[in-house]
Amino acid sequence: MVKFYQHLFNYDYQWQNVTLAFWLRYPNPFASHVLAVDVLDRYVDERGVLKTTRLVLKKGKAPKWFPQTFLKNSEAFVIEESEVNPKTQTMVTRTKNLNHVRIMQIEETQTFTAHGETTNCKTEARIISRFGWGMTSRIEGFGQSSFAANASKARKGMRHILQMIRDKQAGNRMQLLATSDL
């Protein structure tokens, strides 16, 4: 069985700021589980689309009821592939964990689309366990509820970074105005 998650959200920020915040979102106070982020590949294709592949190292926790002998390391690598199309003002990201995939695989797709002065974000995820031993459904249920809670924290982290960007832009405008009076 596979569990699904879907959520629609609207950021009260312009698309270019939301896409910038996506790249700057780590570290933030809501993502202490993210240990490292590395860019593996980045290029602009023939259509003008920015394609990026990043490797993210995250730390997680297994539920108390899960046999600890099957999960010796709580760290997992996640591959993140993204496409940013400035012409259509769309950013699509796809992530999936590379470790512990037999226990639980999470495949997430996020689509950020400009909507006037705001940005729509659609998040979809598939949570799959191939563990067996009568625990598949329980693991997937845990994954689904954990994903929902973590997605909420991720939105808070994005809003935190977006506010920092807004504050920085306001400061730059004030500095520009102050120097133009000379």
From TrEMBL:
Single GO cellular component term: mitochondrial intermembrane space
Q: Which residues form the signal peptide?
A: none
Q: Name one Pfam family in it.
A: PRELI
- Annotated PRELI/MSF1 domain residues: 2-170
The protein in question is named PRELI/MSF1 domain-containing protein
Originating organism: Absidia glauca (Pin mould)
